[in-house]
Specification:
single chain; UDP N-Acetylglucosamine Acyltransferase, domain 1; 7-stranded mixed sheet; 4 helices; flat
Length: 189
């Protein structure tokens, strides 16, 4: 059978060698992941905690949160590279990947289970998917509204006052004040 020309490249023999030793080498990274979960994961965004305590714990985890930010229940913050402006809110279950920066302006509303992603895998000229991730910042302008279960992909800027409909997948920048919906999202008005 011929070699694969598209998709993920196979692991090299060196990458596959000594899986037991690799697991031991990965322990520090796994420990860091556990600490990350404790500082920015479901525990600190529990609906059992008052919102003021939720905000304080997330700030201790490195998230920049403005005044009067509401919600944040059962949300997940992958990294501390997230900032949420004053008067903004995130409904339950939002996911902030945050390997690249995520900047959310003032008075922004995020519906339930909005997903904001900042990492992707590039594709080589030969069609192979790179294993190493690339990171692209996401920005959401002041006064924007993102509907339930919308997905914002890496590198997107959503302009001030723009509205993204529920379930939309935003692959390109959204102009200020526009209404966007669909998969992929396009300007509706």
């Amino acid at each position: 059978m011929g070699g694969m020309t598209t998709g993920f490249p196979p692991y090299s023999p060196q990458e596959l060698r000594h899986p037991g030793l690799r697991a031991i080498a990965d322990l520090p990274a796994e420990s860091r992941g556990a600490m990350r979960w404790l500082r920015r994961g479901r525990l600190v965004t529990s609906p059992l905690l008052p919102s003021a305590l939720r905000r304080a714990l997330l700030r201790l985890g490195g998230i920049r949160i403005g005044n009067k930010v509401w919600g944040l229940e059962r949300c997940w913050f992958e990294s501390p590279r997230v900032s949420i402006g004053t008067g903004s809110g995130a409904n339950a279950g939002c996911w902030f990947e945050g390997a690249g920066r995520i900047e959310i302006g003032d008075n922004v509303g995020l519906g339930p289970e909005v997903m904001i992603l900042t990492s992707t895998h590039g594709i080589t000229p030969g069609g192979e998917i790179r294993r190493r991730q690339e990171y692209h910042d996401v920005r959401v302008g002041d006064g924007a509204w993102i509907g339930a279960r919308a997905t914002i992909l890496p590198g997107v800027t959503i302009g001030a006052g723009a509205v993204v409909a529920a379930g939309a997948v935003v692959t390109k920048d959204c102009e200020p004040g526009g209404l966007y919906g669909g998969v992929p999202a396009r300007r509706l008005r």
